[in-house]
Write a structure and sequence with these properties.
Keywords: Heme, Iron, Metal-binding, Monooxygenase, Oxidoreductase. The chain has 23 helices and 9 strands. It is of the alpha+beta class. The protein has a 5-stranded mixed β-sheet with strand order 1-2-7-4-3, sandwiched between helices. It has a two-stranded antiparallel sheet with strand order 5-6. The radius of gyration is 24 Å and the shape is globular. The structure holds protoporphyrin IX containing FE.
Length: 518
């Protein structure tokens, strides 16, 4: 490329950036009037405190305690963000007016890097609604229930492997990296649910995709430096072609993510083409997620490229999220031996009653303690601590609790202008004492055993918990994740006893895009 073309490109990027940046810096609406944490530097704002905490949620919890459920938080380049955990405001942003508030450019960029132009990336409105409608049947109650034998089969492989390890240790307890095993288990399960055998539990070293996934999030997202935080924010101001150039830059992180995406897309393409040829030959394609999608493709307007992106998106969204949640669940049970024993007793009772070790969805649903432990873990350890939305138009967001502004005025709603960035803290909402009671910061499944459990907020897909998001863009795979976790939990608890690792090892909630145990 000649020097003049390169300078022209750089100039063009700078002009595009400056135009978008100046537009976004206008001080508008009520957000500037809100109280909030003292801003850090103009360049970095409060972002390092939020994104490089000792443990995920430290800043969310302490700011919410101090400034309430809506406040102003300074982002990079002196930009004001609205930080929200107020239930009424969240209902408005996510449920009532879901399509007015799109996922932020930085979140869409991350989604595109890890899954291409999938549902996670799709823009609000028609594009998203159409894709979601096509995919929804694959995640209905009945479709998901049909995957139970897949979850059980993968669970048994893990159990056999762990038993072997224990017997090689003379039947004595062994220390296992449970999180890494769970990541393999959930990867194999989502693969099998798409009719693809990854064999990562069996240590299939030939499988490139399983290798690419190993520690993908912690390697590429943990402990982001200032440069990366700034870059993720700049993404919001750059045009698509400039983003494309940056994505293809030669740094190690971009290369790692690019290589992983190429492998994932290659696998998805191969699988879809083979399903399409089965279908063309008039053969039954089966009941797996991919077959359902490919069949939908026949009747609806969806391109093969779009299908590939959806599969890639499901592979990534559908395994590490569930594995990390399960890891936190087993961690909590390892510190609560009485509860672990009670659950083991309930499972044994249910197996006896059914006359089989293999439980059914109805059996899971009739174990209140199992349900309570799952819900409490989802509440306490939301694997995606926050999401970011951008207001698509001038708007007025209602509040359930009035907010006192920095100059003493009382606001019952917050006016925002088009383009306002809104940080939605799932972590803070899930710990509000006004909803969950004074012990909100304690892991206590009993709260879900009482009938009048908690204040109803109309948020989330299950028991007012917002961990799977809420509204049109909530997690499409929540039933899949719940059933998989119930199946894994019953299998593992009825076969093993979990204890914390010896030697007082500290396990922290690390900020690696997802909240990973580290
Ligand atoms: C414990 C496990 C899981 C958790 C906590 C979780 C959480 C979430 C959250 C919070 C969102 C919405 C983010 C936002 O509002 O910006 C989301 C979206 C999504 N999730 Fe999950 N997820 C889990 C498992 C799964 C599984 C198993 C699948 C697929 C098999 C899946 C597929 C998706 C997809 C495709 C989206 C995008 C939905 C859309 O934009 O319409 N997730 N997930």
């Amino acid at each position: 490329m000649s020097l003049s073309i390169v300078s022209g490109l750089i100039l063009f990027i700078l002009i595009s950036f400056t135009r978008r940046f100046i537009k976004s810096r206008r001080k508008f609406g009520d957000v500037v009037k809100l109280s909030g944490p003292p801003p850090g530097s103009w360049l970095m704002g409060n972002m390092p405190t939020l994104l490089r905490p000792e443990e995920v949620g430290d800043a969310d919890f302490s700011w919410t305690r101090k400034y309430g459920t809506v406040f102003r938080m300074m982002g990079t380049f002196g930009r004001d963000n609205l930080f929200v955990s107020d239930p009424k405001a969240l209902r408005y942003i996510l449920n009532t007016r879901g399509y007015r508030f799109s996922r932020s450019q930085s979140m869409r960029f991350l989604a595109q890097v890890i899954s291409g132009k999938s549902l996670i990336w799709a823009e609000v409105g028609d594009q998203h609604a159409r894709q979601r409608k096509i995919m929804e049947p694959a995640f209905s109650h009945a479709s998901v229930a049909a995957f139970l034998p897949v979850f059980q089969e993968k669970g048994h492989i893990a159990i056999d492997k762990w038993r072997d390890t224990i017997s090689q240790n003379g039947g004595n307890p062994v220390v296992l990296d449970v999180h890494s095993w769970l990541a393999r288990l959930t990867l194999d399960a989502i693969g099998a649910a798409m009719d693809y055998e990854l064999g990562s539990l069996e240590g299939n070293s030939e499988n490139q995709l399983a290798k690419e996934y190993e520690n993908l999030f912690s390697d590429s997202q943990y402990n982001q430096g200032d440069g990366r935080i700034l870059f993720m924010d700049l993404v919001g101001y750059l045009p698509e072609w400039a983003i494309h150039l940056i994505r293809n830059s030669p740094d190690a992180n971009s290369k790692r993510l690019k290589k992983y995406l190429e492998t994932a897309n290659h696998v998805s393409r191969t699988l879809i083409l083979s399903k399409l040829s089965l279908l063309a030959a008039g053969k039954d394609t089966g009941k797996d997620i991919m077959s359902l999608l490919v069949n939908a493709n026949q009747s609806k307007e969806v391109s093969t490229e779009e299908l590939i992106a959806q599969l890639t998106g499901l592979l990534v969204a559908g395994h590490e999220t569930t594995a990390s949640t399960m890891a936190w669940l087993l961690y909590e049970l390892s510190r609560n031996q009485d509860l672990q024993d009670k659950l083991r007793k309930d499972i044994a009772e249910s197996q006896r009653h059914r006359g089989s070790e293999e439980l059914t969805t109805q059996a899971f649903e009739s174990m209140p303690l199992l349900q309570a432990i799952l819900k409490e873990t989802l509440r306490y350890h939301p694997i995606l601590a926050r999401t970011i939305r951008t207001a698509g138009q001038d708007d007025v967001i209602p509040l359930s609790v009035p907010h006192k502004t920095a100059d003493g005025k009382i606001l019952n709603e917050v006016a925002v202008e088009k383009g306002q960035q809104i940080i939605i803290s799932f972590a803070a909402y899930n710990r509000l004492t006004s909803i969950w009671g004074e012990d909100a910061h304690i892991w206590n499944p009993e709260r879900f055993l009482n009938d009048n459990e908690t204040t109803k907020t109309g948020l989330g897909v299950i028991s007012n918990i917002i961990t799977f998001g809420s509204g049109e863009r909530s997690c499409i795979g929540w039933r899949f994740a719940l059933l998989e976790m119930q199946s894994m939990l019953c299998d593992l608890i009825s076969n093993f006893k979990f204890s914390p690792p010896p030697g007082n090892v500290q396990i922290i909630r690390s900020e690696s895009a997802l909240m990973m145990p580290m």
